Amino acid sequence: MRSGSKFLAFALSVAACIATTPAQSSLIADGITYTLIFQTTANPNIDSFELMITGINGPSDTELGRFGVQSFAFNPPTGFVSAGAPAGFTEMPGGLDSGGCNGSGNFFCFSANATPTAPPLAANSGLNFFFTITTSTTFPTGYNPDFKINWDGTKNNYDLVSLALTPTPGITTQTQVPEPATLLLFGIGLLGAVAGVRWRRR
């Protein structure tokens, strides 16, 4: 096999791998996708987090009619001191139930300052919540929190999600990594450039 053909085969295999590699790990519950992203800060005792929620009231949402998030909670990391609430929320100790933050259990909870009301959020919409966690020592590695969330909407009670949500490091909506489809297009463009070079050499 000539060197040009070898390079072409290699580039094709790289493009195929890129197309099948997920951009980030997420939790899917009731057709809604939850992604917890964290960034380290200049202060080693504080980490910045973003909870990304997508697919709300979309085709995969099994419950629909959601007005918004009433509350959500995580269990704390080792050395937990406090959590800085997202805009429009207040931090409270404890977990949550169908009534919202309940002050019970080894959790910290964020409660909406105003109850979400009609109309339902747009089909297939998303929400982003930014918050911080402060610890007494350097933020521990391997933090894999239990996650709870409570929704308000047209249903009397939505399914109370209570599942583990592993954080994804270093990706935020401000600095998104390219999606697989974008990377695949880049790979195809690269192959076209290589083919053009080979054609000119002939």
Oligomer: single chain
Strand content: 35-45%
Question: Averaging pLDDT over every residue, what do you get?
Answer: 83
Q: Would you identify the regions where 5 or more consecutive residues have pLDDT less than 50?
A: 6-24, 174-186
Distance separating the two termini: 17 Å
* CATH architecture name of the largest domain: Sandwich
Number of strands: 13
Structural classification: alpha+beta
- Domain count: the total is 2
Instruction: Tell me the Rg in angstroms.
Output: 22 Å
The backbone outline, from C-alpha atoms, is globular
Element-by-element helix/strand order = HEEEEEEEEEEEEEH
Largest sheet: 6 strands, mixed
CATH secondary-structure class of the largest domain: Mainly Beta
Helix fraction by DSSP (H/I, runs of at least 4): 10-25%
Task: Could you tell me the CATH topology label of the largest domain.
Answer: Immunoglobulin-like
Number of helices: 2
